[in-house]
Structure formats: C-alpha cells, structure tokens
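Reader question, answered in our methods column.
A reader sent in the components of a multi-part assembly and asked whether the whole thing could be modeled at once rather than chain by chain. We filled in our standard form and ran it. Here is what they sent:
COMPLEX SIZE: two components
ENTRIES:
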Amino acid sequence: MNPVRSSRSSRSAPLARFSAPALVLLLLLALALPPAVTGCGGGEPTAAGDVTFTYWSIFPVGDPAESVHNTMMRTFEDQNPGVTVEHVGTSFWDYWTKLQTAQAGNQGPDLFIQDICNVKGRAKDGVSANLEAYLKADKIRKDDYLASDIESCTWNDELYAMPFSTDARYLFWNKAHFEAAGLDPETPPKTLAELESFADQLTKYSEDGKTLEQVGFHPRLGNNIFVQMVWSQGGEFFDQDMNPTINTDKNIEVIEWWVRMVNKYPVRAFNAFSTQASAAAVSPFIQGKVSLLIDNNELAWKIKDLAPDLRFGVTAVPYDGEENRTAWSGGFTLEISAAADKAKQDAAWKFIRYMTGPEVQSNLTETLRWLPCLVDSLDALKEGADANELAIIEESKYRRHFDYVEASPQWWGYVDPQISKLEQGELTSARKAMDLAQAELLRQIENYRKTSGQE
Amino acid sequence: MRWTDRMTMRRKEALAGVLFALPWILGFLVFTLYPIASSFYYSFTRYNMRSAPLWIGLANYETIFTTDSLFVPGVLNTLYFVAFSVPLNLAASLLIAVLLNNRTFGIRFYRTLFYLPNVVSIVAVALLWQWILDPTFGLINQALALLGVEGPGWLTDAAWSKPSLILMGLWGVGGTVVIFLASLQDVPASLYDAALIDGAGPVRKFRHITLPMISPAIFFNLVMGIIGAFQVFTQAFIMTGGGPSDSTMFYALVIYRKAFWDIQMGYASALAWILLVMILAVTLVVLKLGNRFVFYGDTQS
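And here is the structure of the entire assembly that came back:
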C-alpha cells in the first residue's frame, strides 16, 4: 500500500475505524439521545394501576402563584394515591401558542387550562373530550355553576370544559374625589348620562388648562371594552343565529356616547396623562388620578395591597334596565384532551373534580386571587366581606363572556378599528363606522364560508 | 478488510463530509424544508390546527385576491416600507461605514458603539422607541419643543406612523455597516494613490473608486434589505398593532392575524406563499437589473 495514500486515508477518514453497523448504531444513538437526556417521553416506571397524566397550566416556575398551585397538585396526589400529575407551567404570554401548536402536532397534554370564550371551537373540532359521562357518574350538577359559564362550556347541549376561575368588570369610584366635587360619595352613577355628568364634574385641569390633573371617566382607561358598554345598554352584536348586528340603532347610540366621552379630553393632554400614569405601573385609579374607572376585581385586591387607605366604592357598570345588567367576563376552564387514553382521562377528570370542587374553589380568591366559578364557593366569600367585596361577589353573577363566532373568534378586533377612526376624527359618523364594521365582519364570515370546503 | 477500505478516497471524504454535516442537514429537513412544504400543502386546505386539514383547492387564494379587505392595504403598506426603508438604511449604513473607515483615535470604540443596537432584542428596541416617540414625553418631541416645533403624534397619527417605523429602523443598521466596512477595507490603497496623482478629489474618489469597488457589498445589502423589509413585523406588532387606522398593517401582520386571531392556518399559509412569490419576483428583478451595475473584479458581471 502506498504509504502516502495510507497516511492521507487515516487523516481524512477517521470514520474508517468504525464498522458500518457500528456507525449506523452510533447515529441512531445520537438521534435517540436528546429525549433520553431531557427525560421527555420517558418517565419513571409506575406500579400496575398507577396513572400519570400530563397537565399544562399558566403557572411556570417563578410565578407568584406557582407554590399555591403546586400545593393544590400535591394535595390532590395525596388524596388520590396512584395518580401523579406531571405538570408543565408556561408563562401566560407564551402558553396559548405553545398549547395550540402542541395540540396541532398531537403532542398536547392530557389536561390543560384554556380560555372559556372559545370552548365551542375545541369541542366541535374534537380537541376537548366530552365530560357528560363524568358529570353523570359523579352526580355533578351544572346548576352549581353560573349559567353563563356553563353555556360557554357547552356545545351541542353537552359539556366539554369545566369552569375553573373567572373575573368580572365593575365601576370603581373614588369617594374622596366625589366629596371634593360636591357629589354624594355613596351614590355612584347608575346611567350613562349620569356617568358622563359625574365625569364632567370630576375632571380637573391644571391652571393653564393644558394638563389633565384628574380624569373623571375615560372609557379606554382601566380594563374596559366597548362591548361591555353596549351590552349594559341592551345592545347586541349578534342575533340568535349568530349573524352580526353591529350597526343597530342601540349599538350606534352607545358608540356615539363612547366617542363623545373619549373626545372630551384633548388628545395631547390625555396622551400625556396616560403616559405619566402608565409609567408608574400602577392603575391610575390607585394613584388617585382617575375618579371613575371600569376594571376587573383584581383592582380591588391591588388597592388592598397598595393603597389600603383609598376610599373607594365598587358597583355595576351603568346599565339600562335589570335585564341588561352585565359584567363582561373572561375566565379559565379545565379541559381533557380527547386524544388522551381512557385511564389518563379518568385520572384527569379526578383532578378537574378536585380543582372545580369546593375544596379548591372556596380558597381560590385567597390563594390565587381569582373568583371561583362554583356558586356556593362564591357565596361563601360573603362571610366577613366588606361592602365592596359584597358588590364584587354579587355583580359577578351577571357576568357574560364574548360571543363565540367560529369564523372570527376575535370579532371585536374588527369593530374596534372603526371606533378608533371615529375617535381620531377620520370618520365623523358612528353609523358609517358601524356600517363599515358590520360589512367587515360579514366579509370575514363570508370568506370563512368560502374557504371552509363546504361549498 | 474494513468496509471503508473498499471505498475510494473521494467517496470516503464525501461520506465523512455528509456525516459531519448530517446534524445540520437533518435540522434543515425537519425544521425548515418540512414546514415550508407543509405550509404549501396547507395553503390549499382549510386548517385550524385543531382538526385535520381539509383540501379546498384554490379557495384560499381566490378569497385573498377577490374579497380580503386587508390584503391590499397589507401589500401597499409593505411596499411603502420597502421603498423608503431599504434605500434609507443603505445610505445611512454606507455613510456610517465610510466614517468608521477612518484611522482616527477611538475608532474601534465607535465601531462597537454602532453595532451595539444589533445585539439588543428587537422587542426591547421597540419598547424603547415607543418611549422615544411618545408625543409628549418622548425625546424627539421634547427636542423639537426646544426648537419651538410641535412634534407630531409619531405612532398615533396615521400620516406619521409608517415614517416613524422607517426612521426607527435606522437604529439597526449596525449589521449592514459591518459588511460595508469589511468591503471598504478591501479596496486597494493603490487605487486611491493613483487617483490622487491624477488629481482626483474625495468626491471623485468615492464615486469612481469606492462605489464600484464595494458594489458587490451594496448589491448584497440591497437584496437582503429588500427581503428583510418585506417581512417587517415585530415593530408594528409591538408598537402599533397595525394601527392607527391600519396604517401599519404590514403584510406579515395580516398573516399573523389570520393565523393566530382567526385560527385559519391554511389561509395564512396561502398569504405567506403569496409573500414568498412577491419577494422572489422583486428579488429576481433586482438581480436582473442590479447585476449590470456591480463590479466583480476585472470584469463586469
């Protein structure tokens, strides 16, 4: 053999030392290594009959609620020997995309937290398991939960998710501001006209009239949306058959009021005000810069922590007639993957029953600062509650979630830009704006129909 | 006899090369080629990520071209961004590179300084600029106020929102500057010496020596800039959400909305493929026209 060739060969082809089968084996080992190293797809062997199910939540390591949530899981495991919860917590902001992508690739968890507003879509597409058999077997009564929550969790008259936690919107008012303006501190506005009139009396500018020192009420501050205001006045965005009704007279009337309220404040002054307020990373209501604000129950808990001396009241968002009393609400559900095997589904259901049962629900507000969905647990909060907490509990029973529209799950996102155009003066007629929004939503629905493959 | 002994040297080397490149090849196949091929298939389906894709032929494309209200604004906004941001970024980065090409004291510090914004996450940059562009407390309007000029609502005024994002893009020219700088340093000093003897001034030297000699780098940055600008997303997503009045509703944002708002992944895939074709078409045109002006050594390409 040519020595030069031999030396080159050994330098340039180090793989020659391995036999072909060894090389293939090495390659397969390398490919198999990552899951083995990370533990994904592996897991400890369990005794016969023991079940481990995977559970994804929005409580990652380091989250303030992580330890509380961990305690819930460990308590459940102690109460259910042989059942292990394999939990993965992900930041709220990344969770939804991660879950959606994992489920699309059949890599989703057996049990997961989800948004109550779009259960119907997951039920229809077979992502979430039907829970009716479990409800019957365990004699769980749907009436124990709020009808609006159950409705959002129902598709084709059957339940596909269990309501876990919720929130609701309220009108907060600053009593000291009321007194200073000569208003009765115990009488909040009950109608939109009153809200507007009170706001006018409560708004304060600096001496030169250029700087906003106190905002009476601005609909875009806090945690509010035009949908809440329209619902409270008896407006609707969809009819019984879920056809859009964006441009009804009632809706237009409320949107006109909304834009009038926004335009009461000069753009530059309000921008300056909101920039300053947001820099503090605390609600402007807590800072004492806003007199009336629509926000959710979390604001009340924050006031307790950050401004315990703030004299404030909580009441319903002004509504027109008892039948329109509404608190816009979001919330989380617990859902079982339809793709999970039966043993895991059964174990996951036990966990759902625990999380949505009285033991966890009664402590949900104290531990996670969320409102419980179980009505008895909600009512139990009344014991020892102050007037504001009582209002929060009572008003939360009027809560309502966004209507689910399959063609456009975030339909309000197609209406809001038209309202913004009105606020900015690009459009001058609320009717025109709502006509445009109606046309846009109809177009979205029509486009969805055209691309649904059902034509 | 070992199995490799039966192979020729060329084959052994090829095999070793392929095996060493295998992790990348596998990564490319699994994480790039497969998603690209999948999205092409999905573009002909109704796919909501929850149920199996349903074949609907050209319906997505037909709807996009006939009744999608965001398609045309998305394309026009993106073309506006490409048309102004690419030349501006090229000119600014070339100017900075020329300045940084001097052998003056502390030049390494300045080079680092200009590249520094590129290592900052675009999300952090966007949040920072949101403050800089704030109509009342922002640095820009404060500075304008000192001059007695009332600054506009940079991100809140539909007329200013796109120019604001284009100006903000200058913050990230560091990468392009580095490429220009490397190219400038490759220009032989003898050419400048010869020009000097012939009596050429700085402008002539720049026009007749520097520009032709760095034309491949200009061309490269132009093509990459166009491709990047067509995909503009993060700034608008974080700073304006597509507003005000859809003035920053760039094409990539339209895709995002369809994919993650409306959960219509098939439709979004069709939009993405249209974007690919648009980028491809523009790039091909630029390649065809641009090559005439690029000087690759002793022959023009």
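What stands out: The domain at 51-167+329-398 of chain A is CATH 3.40.190.10 (D-Maltodextrin-Binding Protein; domain 2). The radius of gyration of chain A is 28 Å.
Send us your own complexes using the same form.
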